[in-house]
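Q: How would the structure tokens look for this protein?
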Amino acid sequence: MLRETNVQRLHWADKTMSLIRQQQLEACERRLNALPSYGLYTYNDDVHAEELWLSSFDGQESPRLTHLHTTHELRAKVLTRLPSEAALLSVEEHHLIERLLTLGGDAELLDWEEMSAAESLVRRLWCVITHTEHRFVLHLPPELVTPLTMIFSSRKHEELRMRLLRHDAVIRALLYIGGLLHFEEPLHHLLEDVLEGGGETDRMLAMRYLRTAYDYTHDQYGEMLLLHPGLAEPEALLDIAAPQDGLSIDLDEETLRGAMEGLMPEERPLFDRLYGLLLGATRPEIMEEEAVEDLRMLAKQGVPLSVMLEVLGSMLLLQPTEEMRQAVAELHSQTPRWGEMRMDRLQ
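A: Here is the predicted structure in token form.
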């Protein structure tokens, strides 16, 4: 999902991972409300084809209008690309489609996390979303239920998804270790290792996957950068000069597994101690685990200890205890920081 909000001028209490995520999802809800209330299979005429195309990924990726589109053309394109595109759904999109197929094509969105996946499925021209004030329902048309059921149950699809999930785990590990990642390396491995080569359409769908599966922004040259959800200021990380250009590192199995899970072995005791101290002490709307995660992400960005203690105070019902302050100080000093080591590839 594109990181739309510029948080540089905000206090760090308003730049935590949970608040950035909330802002992302609120922006997603606004976009969902602006999408057409009908889909590609709602009407059989061409009156609405152009508006649908403009709201789709195709319209966003190729904004220059070369011809007027027809409903028949858009449907044919969706069906032709369906097997390849289904293999390159984000994890959240894939789960949502599985639920839609199980429920016969209609599913109410259960939580905020499904909002982004629903938006992507609508922009693929697969689904339609309807909503009331507090309820969003996603609809998969009958014309796509049968072909998607057959695709999802095929051996080829299962094998592609297994390779994709392994690729995704490594990318998320690298984002956890480094904070951000230029898109070229993940794209290259996606095409070579997951798709085992591919043409222009596969490259386009692979880029679409990167934009739907990860937070991303663009650097000053317009290049796409994948972001860890907790990285509030990618500009600051880009400004850090790497000690060596082209440095590669080896990761042992334990470290890589910890990065995939979002918690390094040496970070576990720090997490457990602070989590135990915060039990029952955070404001009602803040979960203790969420509070610790927010503070850990601030430590990874090198936020000063004094600021981290201010953020801690904003999360609590009462004044922080000396034990809490000491635990945050240890978290600040012992958490590996983003920007301390540059990674160009994983060996």
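The longest strand covers residues 128-131.

Confidence is low (pLDDT under 50) at residues 241-249, 342-347.

Upvote if useful.
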